[in-house]
């Protein structure tokens, strides 16, 4: 899932709501969390599910 797709999904949420996304290891795993922090969103947790898939829990900025 790319940052653009994550950002579109966040736009449909109310401030403070949470979103969980799955990312593949690599460029997306580096760029998506960094871009979200730059926009003021909070990364609540990041964990590896296996097979190069990572789970990212996000709270939309208030």
Please give a structural write-up:
The protein is globular, with a radius of gyration of 11 Å. It has 62 residues and is α+β, with helices and mostly antiparallel strands. It has a three-stranded antiparallel sheet with strand order 1-3-2, covered by helices on one side. Strand 2 (42-50) and strand 3 form a beta hairpin. The protein has one domain: TusA-like domain (Translation Initiation Factor IF3). It has two helices and three strands; from the N terminus they run H-E-H-E-E. It has helices at residues 3-11, 27-38; strands spanning 18-24, 42-50, 53-59. The mean pLDDT is 94.
Count the strands?
3
CATH first level: Alpha Beta
Low-confidence stretches: none
- Rg over CA atoms, rounded to whole Å, is 11 Å
Q: How much helix, percentage-wise, in residues?
A: 25-40%
């Amino acid at each position: 899932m790319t940052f653009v797709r994550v950002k579109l999904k966040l736009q449909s949420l109310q401030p403070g709501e949470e979103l969980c996304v799955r990312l593949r290891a690599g460029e997306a795993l580096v760029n998506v969390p960094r871009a979200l922090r730059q926009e003021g969103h909070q990364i609540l947790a990041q964990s590896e599910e296996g097979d190069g898939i990572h789970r990212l829990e996000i709270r939309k900025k208030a």
